[in-house]
Each structure stands twice: as C-alpha cells, then as structure tokens.
Amino acid sequence: MEPERQIEIQLGHMCNNRCVFCVSGQRTALGEAGPMPVEPILDQIRLARSNGHRKITLLGGEPTLQPGFLRIVQETVDLGFEEIVLFTNGAKTARADFIDAVRATGGRFTWRISIQGATLESHERTTKKPGSFGRIVRTLEHLAARGERRTVNMCVVRSNFEDVDRFPELVLPHGVSQLHLDMVRPLDAGARTEDELREMLPRYSELAPPLRRMIAGFDEGFDVNIGNLPQCIAPDLAPWIHHDGEPTETVAIDGDDRLSRPWNKYLVKRRDKQKPERCRTCVFDSRCSGVFETYARFYGFGELMPIAASQLRGLDAAGRLLGLWVPALVDAALEPRVLSDREVTLAHDGRAIALRPTSAREGALALYSRFSVHAIDALRAEDVAALAPALAALAEPIHPLGQDASRTSLLSSTIGRLRAAAPFGELTWRSLELAASRAELALDARDGSSATLWLELAEGKPRGGYRVSGEPSEALVEGLRAVMRTLARAPRE
C-alpha cells in the first residue's frame, strides 16, 4: 500500500542526457544548470518529514550527479521515510559500486529508471546520448542481482512511441514491477520553438495500436499505467489510463535555481489542460482532464469523442470497468452500488449479488461474457427470478444465474465444479433446474442439437448421465465429453 502522504523533491536540473522533451537537459546544455547547495535541500526534506510525509521521491535532472546525493539519501533514511524513490537515467547506476554505496545507507528504495524508448534506437534517439541504453541495461542487471525494487518510466514523444510494444521483452527479464508511460507535457519541455514542439508531439490516435500491443505483451496483473492519454482515444485501454495520481507535493527548482515552496503536483500539472463541452456526457468525464493546450492548438479536439455506457460495455470484455457502465444500464430498482471499477453490487429486496471481472471465476454463481457473479447474501427463488433477466440484458450468459443460487443443494459441490469449468467446448449452458436431490442441466450446440445432463444422489453418492435430443453432432459429443471429464474429477458431496 502506498504511504498516504508523499513528496517529491527536485535536486537540480543538471543532467547528462539531452532528452528532446526535457527542460533539464536543455538548461544543462546552455550552461544554466549546475550543482545545487545541499543544506536547503536537507531543510526541505526535514520539513517534509515533520509534516507527516512518509514517502519521498528524489528527482532531477539527474539527481545522482549532484555532489551531495549520497548525503541527501542518508538523511532520508535517517529520518525514517518508509519508501524512498530514486529517479535516475542509469548513468551512474551502471556502476555496481555506486548502487552498493546507496544501499549501504540502509534505506528501503524503489529505483525508478528513466527509459526513453523500449529499444536502443528509440531510447538514444530521444536522449541524444550514445551509450545511454547500454547503461540502462547494466543498471537493471545490477539492481536485479541485488533484489532491489525497480520500476520504469518513459515520456511518450514522437521519437519513441512506435516501439513501446517492445517493453515487455525489455523489462520482464529484469524483474521490473511497474511501467509508467506519460504523455509529454509541453510546459515541462523548456524553451522550444513551435517546430520543435510539433516534432515532439505525436497525435494521440497514433499511439493506440502500439499501446494495445504493449498491454497484450504483459501478463494479467502486471502494473502498467499510461498517464494523460484521453480515455476516448482507446477506451479498451482505459483500465490502464489515469490523469492524476496519489496526492503528492512537489518541491521544484525555480527559474532562479532556488527551491520552490511545496505545491500540489496534479493540480498544477493539469492547469494547461482543456477539453470541449461535449466531453461532459462521456463516462470518463470525471477522470479525464483532456489534452494540453499546445496539443489542442496543433491538433484540435477532433479526436475527443464522448463514450457512452453502452459503448463501453461492448469494449469491456474482461469486466475491468464494471463500475462505469453497469449502473447506467441496469434498472435503478436493483440498487446498483459501485464498490470499485471492478466490482458492482445489485440487490433485489435487500438480497445482493456482486459483479466482478470474468477472471474472478472461483466460487462464482454464474458467468457472463463481461462479468462473473458472486453471492453476498443467500438468495431466494424470487431474487433469482428478478436478477437473472437483468444480468442477461447486460451480457451474454455463459452459465447464467440459476435455481442453485437460491438454495443449498446436496449437489452444490458438483454444480459448482461444473460452473467453474464452463463453457464446455461450443456448448451453451441454457438452464439449470433443481428438484429435491436432482439437477438437470440443459446444454445446446450451435448447430441446434442439444442434451440434458442429469445429476442425482443415490445412497448419498452423486451419479449422473445425459440424454440427447436428435442426432448428436460432433460439437455436442465433444462438449459432453468435457462435462464427463469434469464430473469425474469432482469430489464426493
């Protein structure tokens, strides 16, 4: 869990890269950035800790170039910050002895590695620093060998976006735990001409294909986040997009090379963003702050189109955004309640069920194409009758809510095993009927053939069989074989 209060402190602008999007490299090249005095920085760190901050990020420029860097790190450790994030371009950390010197301070570190392209070509095209990619790779190797937590950050610009889909093969072998990609903010780019800014800023719609390929390259659950991309550009990627973050204060280097007063990071970072009035009807309106003014000046607002709840439902195949579209599409009488993006409850007469992503199959009462259904309260037959049609209207049933949800059946273990294993090949689970200690499951094949599976208890032991209507098709036979294999593995009731 992230510490509730966090602060980031810029140690100076001095940097040995010349990234096309960054004011620090530009100021260094112009001779305007140099070493910063240590004591004012230490004073800010002490003040932050006394004000209750528990997490601190040290950034630049390149913070490791500051002569007082190790002294500053030691102070954060001695003051008891719970997490210390070190933002670095990997220049000095390519040396294992430098990493060991940092670790010797005794802190709990997260190393946030600035990788400005998923390949050597795109990274060095963006940093304008030959050899910088190799130093990044050595840094990752050293950190992995020492078991240090490592994350990766990239600013998305025209020179590096096309091969972001190569990130999985770059970072996964090195045990990176998080990847953050952020749209470039023109106000942070320094003194740039209009031509330089145009060359720097890609159209957001160009980013969607490589971003989709990148997300597909990571396993479910890997921490990827994409900052400041309007969700309507790629609504299917909305689970990974954000426009703000955890409450954070920033102490930056002002134009006269003095430390600023702490300011609200995300409030300031969105002061130059805007969006058209039509965005007010979008399901993402409350969480999207639009585009940067410079971007709007170059490309306009034509890419920004409101997304309706019904449209989002069609894009949210895995049920990661249930909290956005389910309440808008379900009857208010079922009392939809949003617990998170990934969980919504529906209730009938005080009896509730939970809708969760399709991956949450364990213990599910039912499975639909865009969510799984889980018990919160013991349901009655009338609750099932009220809830089942509403669920079928929201998504295609795979194995729909049935009578087994309304009672404790002697066959519940076997039925639960069948629900967890469904679907069975091409068979559709049409209905489940319960009567005393007997259950009948109707299964349909796409070609029109069907079968009824029956289960019952005989002398306390489950037994079953099936009957087929008409000539059994190959799909029906294969599906029934899958059912029988599942039953053979089922434990005794």
Write the layout of secondary structure elements.
Elements: E1 6-10, H1 23-29, H2 38-50, E2 55-59, H3 69-78, E3 83-88, H4 96-103, E4 109-114, H5 120-127, H6 132-145, E5 149-156, H7 167-171, E6 178-183, H8 194-200, H9 204-216, E7 223-227, E8 241-242, E9 248-251, E10 263-264, H10 265-269, E11 273-274, E12 291-292, H11 293-299, H12 309-315, H13 322-329, E13 337-340, E14 343-348, E15 351-356, E16 366-368, E17 371-375, H14 381-394, E18 397-399, H15 412-421, E19 428-435, E20 438-444, E21 450-458, E22 461-469, H16 474-489
Parallel strand pairs: 1-2, 1-9, 2-3, 3-4, 4-5, 5-6, 6-7, 7-8
Antiparallel strand pairs: 9-10, 11-12, 13-14, 14-15, 15-17, 16-17, 16-18, 19-20, 20-21, 21-22
